[in-house]
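Example 9 (inverse folding). The structure is encoded as follows.
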């Protein structure tokens, strides 16, 4: 049988303490624009989720009705 070879692991180096300076962003108007853009771009996702939830509800109701008839 062949001998198993151990893979060498890279030595973990210590991370020096760094201070990140974050500048103040744009006013909320930019955030509102991105929220509106987000709603427009992902409108189809909400529509698809609504369809999935409706179908899941119908299937769940069908299971309950079948349970009542079969018992």
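The amino acid assigned to each position is listed next.
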């Amino acid at each position: 049988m062949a001998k198993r070879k151990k893979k060498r692991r890279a030595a973990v180096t210590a991370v020096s303490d760094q201070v990140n300076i974050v500048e103040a962003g744009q006013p909320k108007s930019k955030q509102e624009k991105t929220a509106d853009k987000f709603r427009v771009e992902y409108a189809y996702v909400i529509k698809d989720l609504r369809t999935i939830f409706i179908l899941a509800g119908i299937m769940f109701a069908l299971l309950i009705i079948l349970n009542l008839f079969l018992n």
